[in-house]
Write a structure and sequence with these properties.
205 residues; alpha+beta; 8 strands; NUDIX_hydrolase-like_dom_sf; NUDIX_hydrolase_dom; 2 domains
Length: 205
Amino acid sequence: MENKKWLEWAVELQAIAQAGLYYTKDCFDQERFERIREISAEIISRQSEMPVEKVKDLFCCETGYQTPKIDTRAAIFKNNRILLVKESDGRWSLPGGWVDVDLSVKENIIKEVREEAGLDVEVDKVIAVQDREKHNLPIYAYKICKIFIQCSVIGGSFKANNETTDSRYFSMEELPPLATEKSNAEQIKMCFQAYSEQAWKTILE
């Protein structure tokens, strides 16, 4: 819990500094906000044992008012089984990833499924919009909004690529080792529930 509090403070400092750097016109304030941003990176570095320069690359390179990153995950079903893709480390996850700045959420999930599973899909419904840190570990130094979307296959087949090595359909009872930082058993179970309930209401949390 203490580690989480340190992270919350560092994230808040980073957000204040980033907004300040974007809006201020005063050169002295810019120096102060730069120092606040450096302090936030030093806190993260100390707590995570990650080199401070790497923290700055991941955590301190954006401009403008700080907002959450968006991650999309596709729930695709066949014969009451859900599609998972195999990561290069041998673990499995729902296909998906970061939303590109030039794509809508819908366009992005279609792209991600095509890249990771080789499938062409159409979007059926939004299952849930989640605050990642309430569901997935480890907690990151930036906010992430996860959007789970049920999709239907309209064509395609798996092709080898540089992100995934396999794709298969699994029942809830036979899930393989999961990349839980991306999609965990609780979230996959939620997708099964949404698939079985015709009148499903999007979860917002």
